[in-house]
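Incident log, support desk, overnight shift.

02:14 A customer reports that sequence design results differ from what the structure should imply. Their input is reproduced verbatim below. On-call engineer (initials T.W.) acknowledged and began investigating.
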């Protein structure tokens, strides 16, 4: 959207605000903004969700949960997904507005993406995120926001929202009173980069404050976060919304203020523009008591209404009067998106594609996969998630017109070839029996029977959003959405033991939105697929991978810990020992890891340095160093990627900067700083370029100051991390390129 049009929208919003009474202004700053007929303003509800598809408003394409889409490691593809989401959102809005349906989940202000860092695998809401890495989260988040908001010069397609700002990742049970304490170094190195990228690169329209405190300040009323960093340092020009009913936490949970009047005054004064909830009604009293000012309320409402003008759902008519009529502007290209764009065939195809790309092949000993269905007479499909729709979708989901479970996907794939499918739930997801009046392990004999008659067995276990998710939304009785540990719940491991004991060739498919400790299962099964919550078409995608129609290409966006690993206290926000960037123990499956049915060679062939960065030998790859002297340059690394196998597939070229030789206090071991996904036919070669500038090498110090430290670095290029465990699992080493900062 061009700056002239943005300025015009802000001017109109300011003019509209000037015509309102203080009472009218205050009520416009709740998520349920009422109509003001005398000003031509219709009611509008700002609360809508689109984490992985338009949510909670009827039929829409239900894509894989965010963590699954992150595993695709594909910026471009996520942008295409977001574009479909905003197209469906516009189509649904246009028809809902036509019929005067302006309730909750019906607007164009989508409170997504969730770009919090998944720092602890126990956090229930981690599956809403893009994983544990700030760089990957930034790149995917930027792409998602751009896809949601569109690229029209005059109108925004839909408004995205970066949440939850900031330093927020559990525990869920105490989020309304919890104080997340973190160092200035961790704040800048880990918790803020994705938010900064979305604000400054993607121009995200909204930012949502978190429930918790950060270093003593309530996030939805934090001068440090909302004024000093977001507005002044980063230049954010959109609007800030509270999380839902988070304003009341300021006094009820955090005890910072004496009551709701003081809470709303503090939130408004420090930069919260709109309240998800109803406490902003107290702003009238807050102004009277001097806790905030009408001038600040005017500023907040101008920020909020500017969004509606940018969307084109509020404007001036030909007579200069404000109106939010259905077709305000005929030149708005998004006003003409009709309902035929909802749940379209092309969206379904894209849904299958992103689900396929998200699947991570963790193990494939002896090339057990893919199965040849023509050589199989019977298939056993066993496990509580095998025929579960709930395990397809995660949370914040829409309603699909079709759900394909893993069992259904396998059945559709093989039955035309005459292969029979046997099925058993095996056990409940977390209880010790399936039937209420049954005895413990009441399906175990059935598991044995299915194994007996099956040529191959596919076990489908894991979690669903009733066990991991948001406080208040989950059904578990022990963690308010968080996991008590990383083990499979209930009798699932017992079912896996039984399948393994049968001796039949067996594949394990795990449907879960987070890392589980699969130590025992990794010794029992020759092939393991991490399937995440793969979306409404997930069963089709999983069957396509198992039977070789599609080559798996996903990579882990988070570390899969071993039972032997030591996890810091859940409430400890210090990054030491957490995620691949800081942990020193060896994980079960590392961040960035993922296998393929084919074999890739990834070889850097040339390095081109800018005028202020140079090599000791002109451009040719050798064992000598790159010298990087200035903050204005970049290093371009040309990488040749070759598919040496017999099947088409995709390689994910990953560039990591290793800092271990620097001896800088609190520095990460290494960080992902470059990413390119390359699709190749069998025998095909392609070249890609990875560009690294000073930001890839600089680090934040203990005072939160960014520095380009002089010393020795190594840039590693490969299809995984350069750690020992990844090399052991893949049988390949990354190529290390020495870099010296003078």
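02:41 Re-run completed on a clean worker. Output:
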């Amino acid at each position: 959207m061009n700056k002239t049009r943005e300025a015009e929208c802000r001017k109109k919003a300011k003019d509209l605000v000037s015509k309102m009474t203080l009472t009218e202004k205050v009520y416009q700053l709740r998520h349920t903004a009422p109509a003001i007929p005398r000003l031509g303003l219709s009611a509008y509800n700002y609360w809508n969700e689109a984490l992985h598809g338009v949510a909670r408003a009827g039929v829409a394409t239900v894509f894989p949960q965010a963590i699954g889409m992150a595993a695709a490691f594909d910026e471009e593809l996520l942008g295409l997904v977001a574009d479909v989401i905003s197209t469906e959102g516009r189509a649904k809005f246009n028809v809902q507005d036509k019929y005067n349906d302006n309730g909750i989940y019906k607007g164009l202000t989508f409170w997504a993406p969730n770009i919090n860092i998944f720092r602890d695998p126990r956090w229930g809401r981690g599956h809403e995120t893009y994983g544990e890495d700030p760089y990957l989260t930034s790149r995917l988040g930027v792409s998602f926001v751009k896809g949601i908001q569109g690229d029209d010069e005059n109108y925004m397609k839909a408004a995205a929202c970066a949440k939850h700002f900031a330093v927020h990742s559990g525990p869920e049970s105490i989020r309304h009173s919890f104080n997340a304490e973190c160092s200035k170094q961790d704040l800048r190195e880990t918790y803020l980069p994705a938010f900064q990228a979305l604000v400054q690169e993607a121009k995200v329209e909204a930012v949502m404050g978190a429930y918790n405190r950060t270093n003593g300040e309530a996030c939805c009323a934090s001068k440090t976060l909302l004024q000093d960093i977001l507005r002044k340092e980063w230049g954010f020009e959109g609007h800030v919304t509270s999380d839902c009913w988070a304003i009341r936490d300021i006094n009820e949970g955090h005890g910072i203020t004496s009551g709701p009047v003081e809470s709303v005054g503090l939130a408004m004064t420090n930069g919260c523009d709109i309240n998800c909830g109803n406490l902003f009604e107290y702003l009238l009293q807050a102004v009277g008591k001097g806790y905030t000012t009408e001038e600040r309320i005017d500023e907040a409402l101008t920020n909020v209404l500017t969004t509606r003008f940018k969307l084109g759902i509020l404007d001036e008519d030909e007579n200069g009067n404000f109106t939010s009529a259905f077709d305000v502007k005929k030149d708005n290209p998004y006003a003409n998106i009709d309902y035929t764009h909802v749940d379209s065939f092309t969206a379904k195809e894209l849904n299958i594609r992103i689900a396929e790309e998200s699947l991570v092949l963790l193990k494939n000993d002896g090339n057990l996969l893919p199965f040849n269905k023509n050589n199989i007479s019977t298939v056993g499909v066993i496990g509580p998630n095998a025929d579960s729709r709930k395990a397809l979708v995660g949370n914040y989901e829409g309603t699909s017109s079709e759900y394909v479970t893993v069992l259904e996907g396998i059945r559709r794939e093989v039955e035309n070839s005459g292969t029979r499918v046997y099925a058993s739930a095996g056990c409940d997801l977390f209880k010790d029996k399936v039937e209420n009046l049954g005895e413990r392990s009441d399906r175990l004999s059935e598991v044995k029977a299915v194994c007996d008659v099956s040529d191959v067995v596919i076990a489908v276990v894991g979690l669903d959003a009733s066990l991991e998710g948001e406080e208040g939304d989950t059904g578990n009785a022990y963690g308010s959405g968080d996991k008590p540990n990383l083990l499979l719940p209930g009798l699932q491991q017992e079912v896996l033991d039984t399948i393994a004991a049968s001796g039949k060739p067996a594949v394990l498919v795990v449907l879960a939105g987070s890392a589980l400790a699969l130590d025992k299962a990794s010794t029992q099964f020759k092939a393991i697929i991490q399937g995440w919550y793969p979306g409404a078409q997930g069963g089709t995608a999983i069957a396509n991978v198992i039977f070789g129609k599609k080559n798996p290409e996903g990579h882990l966006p988070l570390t899969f810990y071993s039972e032997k690993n030591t996890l810091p206290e859940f409430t400890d926000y210090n990054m030491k020992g957490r995620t691949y960037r800081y942990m020193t123990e060896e994980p079960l499956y590392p961040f960035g890891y993922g296998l393929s049915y084919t074999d890739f060679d990834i070889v850097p062939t040339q390095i081109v340095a800018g005028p202020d960065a140079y090599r000791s030998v002109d451009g040719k790859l050798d064992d000598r160093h790159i010298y990087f002297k200035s903050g204005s340059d970049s290093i371009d690394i040309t990488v040749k990627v070759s598919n040496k196998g017999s099947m088409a597939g995709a390689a994910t070229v990953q560039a990591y900067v290793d800092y271990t030789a620097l001896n800088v206090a609190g520095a990460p071991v290494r960080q992902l700083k470059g990413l390119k996904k390359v699709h190749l036919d069998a025998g095909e070669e392609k070249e890609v370029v990875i560009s690294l500038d000073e930001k890839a090498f600089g680090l934040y110090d203990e005072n939160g100051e960014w520095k380009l430290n002089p010393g020795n670095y190594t840039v590693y290029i490969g299809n995984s991390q350069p750690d020992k465990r990844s090399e052991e699992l893949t049988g390949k080493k990354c190529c290390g390129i020495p870099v010296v900062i003078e």
